[in-house]
């Protein structure tokens, strides 16, 4: 199944490249502590998944659709005034701390699908959605609720800190946090000591892990110290609001706990990366 929304750093490309090593372990339980668009798990349609994200509007969308909510496109208009009113309504609901429901799920989907370049963006300080209106020919087609209910019938959706997610019984964990010095500008997440906290979470876990992030010498050093095999891999970014910010770039991919060890034989695009200097 394709992702329901477009999200900075989506991992459909990773899911496709990793098929041979993932299918080799056939994980029954998968955990995504930083779910985002859940592109990885939706691609494989794993039977049992824990999706966690700190974004309440995102998790609410998943919960409502998995409970049978069907988005009615006739409730929305492709007009700037309507878009900004919907954005304000959703922001007010989030700031009030009220329980989110079907209405907020619909608003969130509408904003995600009809913002400029499909960009989901939040202010760093207050966490308000601030993406601008986009020019589209018509209202987008809503996600297929019945298909999502079937795929996610045994999935768990949690809104909270990644460090509180139980990964004990997982056969595969995908570590895809807000990227260092890159996509964290699109969210309200705070990255203080983030990598240290991630490493601590994985300390006692001996299952398979795939970790991705910006290609930085200090990050590759951290993951190699924790027993990961680290590569760089080319990816294409398409979500930047500026055309100059889109195109091919390299990202880090770190792997640990798989039965197949010669990863470059089983995954396309992996390249060695051994920076000469590392600043910690």
TrEMBL record:
GO molecular function, one example?
Answer: site-specific DNA-methyltransferase (adenine-specific) activity
Recorded hits in InterPro entries, A to Z, give:
Ade_MeTrfase_dom_2 (IPR023095), MeTrfase_D12 (IPR012327), SAM-dependent_MTases_sf (IPR029063)
Q: Which UniProt keywords apply?
A: Methyltransferase, Plasmid, S-adenosyl-L-methionine, Transferase
The record's EC number reads 2.1.1.72
Catalytic class of the enzyme = transferase
Q: Does rRNA-binding appear among the keywords?
A: no
Tell me the Gene Ontology biological-process terms attached to this UniProt entry: DNA restriction-modification system; methylation; mismatch repair
User: Would you identify the family this protein belongs to, as annotated?
Assistant: Belongs to the N(4)/N(6)-methyltransferase family.
Q: What is this protein called?
A: site-specific DNA-methyltransferase (adenine-specific)
């Amino acid at each position: 199944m394709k992702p329901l929304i477009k999200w900075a750093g989506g991992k459909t490309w990773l899911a496709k490249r990793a098929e041979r090593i993932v299918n080799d372990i056939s994980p029954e339980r998968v955990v995504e502590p930083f779910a985002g668009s859940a592109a990885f798990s939706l691609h494989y349609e794993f039977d049992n998944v824990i999706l966690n994200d700190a974004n309440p509007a995102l998790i609410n969308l998943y919960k409502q659709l998995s409970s049978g909510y069907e988005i009615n496109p006739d409730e929305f208009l492709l007009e700037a005034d309507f878009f900004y009113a919907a954005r304000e309504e959703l922001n007010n609901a989030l700031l009030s701390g009220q329980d989110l429901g079907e209405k907020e799920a619909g608003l969130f989907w509408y904003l995600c699908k009809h913002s400029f370049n499909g960009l989901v963006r939040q202010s760093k300080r207050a966490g308000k959605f601030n993406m601008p209106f986009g020019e589209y020919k018509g209202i987008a087609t809503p996600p297929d609720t019945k298909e999502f209910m079937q795929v996610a019938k045994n999935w768990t959706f949690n809104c909270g800190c990644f460090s509180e997610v139980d990964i004990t019984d997982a056969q595969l964990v995908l570590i895809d946090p807000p990227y260092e010095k890159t996509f964290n500008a699109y969210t309200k997440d705070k990255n203080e000591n983030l990598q240290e906290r991630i490493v601590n979470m994985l300390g006692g876990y001996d299952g398979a892990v795939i970790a991705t992030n910006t290609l930085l010498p200090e990050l590759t050093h951290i993951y190699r110290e924790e027993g990961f095999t680290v590569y760089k891999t080319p990816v294409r970014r398409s979500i930047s609001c500026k055309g100059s910010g889109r195109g091919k770039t390299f990202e880090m991919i770190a792997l640990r706990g798989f039965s197949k060890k010669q990863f470059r034989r089983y995954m396309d695009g992996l390249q060695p990366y051994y920076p000469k200097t590392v600043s910690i």
